[in-house]
Structures are given as structure tokens and as C-alpha cells.
Design goal:
GO terms for molecular function: extracellular matrix structural constituent; protein-macromolecule adaptor activity; signaling receptor binding. The chain has about 200 residues and is mainly alpha-helical. It has helices at about 1-15, 35-40, 95-195. The protein contains three helices and no strands. It starts with a helix and ends with a helix.
């Protein structure tokens, strides 16, 4: 085994001394060499600032282009009430009556809708407060249950200890004391006989 290890080390040593020809890696890879792009040619310097001063400042931006005012179309039927969308023009008499009745209904319905929104907001707030209260109560009940379980375990340990002490005392009173009393009575009688 040692001979094999020595032979292996000799082979590795001779291979390490033998220098393989070094290969150079071309960083350009497979790309062709073009002489025009490989040389550095400094470009033009940046133009001086517009302000003409020596400090550089940002170039001014162009003025924003505003929208041209839209011209209102003139409709041959002028009069009556107009549609909500100006492009639709003037309403017919029936449409005008419908628009007026819708506006009247909107005046009647809008306060009711506002009242309903307020009621919904109040209900949402009260629901959120009740939900928070329920979460708090759930956490409190869980904590009290843990405390109650811990107290139950402690009471169980005390009860077991009390039962073992009660059994010991009962054994001492029922068995040990009468035996000791009989032994002492026997000793007392022997002493009386000797006296």
C-alpha cells in the first residue's frame, strides 16, 4: 500500500514539473478585428451653455403647447333646454320635460341618499367598534381559560398531596398508634409485675 502511494506521488510530481504550453484566451472571441474602431478618437467637446456664462445650467424647456379652445357648435334650433352633453345639442320638448322631472326627482331623492350614506357610515363605525370589542373579549376569555386551567392543575396537585397526607395520618391513627399503645401497655404490665 505504501509502495502504491509512493508511486502515485512520483507520478504527480513529474506531471507537475512538466509545463504545458500556455493558451491565451482572446477576449474578443469569434468577432473579427476591425482596425477603424479599435483606435480612440476624441469626439467633439460639449457645446457651451446657452446662458453664455461660465457656469453650467440646464437648458430651457420649450413652452408647453396649450389646447386650442373648442368652438361651440351652433345648432339651428336654439331654444328649449340643452342636453347634458353639449355635442348632443338642444332637446325636444318631451326631452326637456323629462329632464325637468329628473331634476325634481333628484332634489327629492338626494337628501334621502345623503341620509342613507350617513346611516351606513354610522353603522360601519359601530360594527367596527363591536368587532374590536369582540376581539378584545375573545382574547380576555382565552387568557382567563389559560389561568383557569393553570389553577385547576394547581388544585389537582394540592388535592393529591392532601390525599396522600390524609392516607398517611389515617394509617398512623388506625394502625400505628394502636400497635404502639398495645406494646406500651404490655411493657407497663411487665413493669407492674416486676414491682
Amino acid at each position: 500500500m505504501k509502495l502504491l502511494l509512493l508511486l502515485f506521488l512520483c507520478v504527480i510530481g513529474t506531471l507537475a514539473q512538466h509545463e504545458a504550453p500556455k493558451q491565451t484566451v482572446d477576449a474578443r472571441g469569434h468577432r473579427p478585428v476591425s482596425r477603424g474602431r479599435e483606435t480612440y478618437s476624441p469626439g467633439q467637446a460639449a457645446p457651451p451653455p446657452i446662458s453664455g456664462g461660465s457656469r453650467y445650467s440646464g437648458r430651457p424647456t420649450s413652452a408647453p403647447v396649450g389646447k386650442a379652445a373648442q368652438e361651440k357648435k351652433e345648432y339651428p334650433e336654439s331654444g328649449g333646454c340643452t342636453h347634458m352633453s353639449e355635442e348632443m345639442g338642444v332637446l325636444c320638448p318631451t326631452g326637456c320635460e323629462l329632464k325637468k322631472s329628473l331634476l325634481k326627482q333628484e332634489r327629492n331623492v338626494k337628501p334621502t341618499v345623503d341620509q342613507l350614506k350617513r346611516s351606513v357610515d354610522e353603522l360601519t363605525q359601530s360594527t367596527n367598534s363591536i368587532y374590536g370589542y369582540v376581539l378584545d373579549m375573545t382574547a380576555e376569555v382565552a387568557q382567563r381559560q389559560r389561568v383557569s386551567e393553570g389553577n385547576g392543575l394547581l388544585v389537582g396537585q394540592y388535592t393529591d398531596s392532601l390525599e396522600s397526607q390524609h392516607a398517611f395520618i389515617k394509617d398512623a391513627v388506625d394502625v400505628t398508634f394502636p400497635q404502639n399503645i398495645k406494646i406500651l401497655q404490655g411493657v407497663l404490665e411487665k413493669i407492674r409485675e416486676k414491682i
